[in-house]
Give the backbone structure.
Amino acid sequence: MADTPSPTALTVHKQSRTLDIAFDSGERFVLPFEFLRVYSPSAEVRGHGAGQEVLQTGMREVLLTAVEPVGNYAVQLTFSDGHNSGIYSWDYLYSLGKDQEKLWADYLRRLELAGFTAETGRDAPMTAKGSACGHHH
């Protein structure tokens, strides 16, 4: 869409686990890796139609390991859990930034509907607490 602002800067902050994206409209969004991963535009997350979304759990600790440009319109993000099939267009990243609060609240609500609490759902597959050791970069 010609109306969507273009990004002027894209910065990955490993410490805070956020992608900082500035648009030429002057807007700036700070998108957590977990949020980006949960809302991956890939088919395996979104399913193939409304209501077919696959609920992503246990992504609190996920890291963004690579950002590859796709033409002039998108980036392909690779996450530490191996997920890399999401192509994030500027349009999509902009809408994630715009609707971040609403989308995040929606995600937490879906975790609860699935029988998790908002917090346990964010940690779900991590079984042993000690498994986060030794990953300091």
User: Anything to note?
Assistant: Residues 126-137 have pLDDT under 50 and may be disordered. Strands lie at 7-13, 18-23, 28-32, 64-70, 74-79, 87-89. The two ends are 39 Å apart (CA to CA).
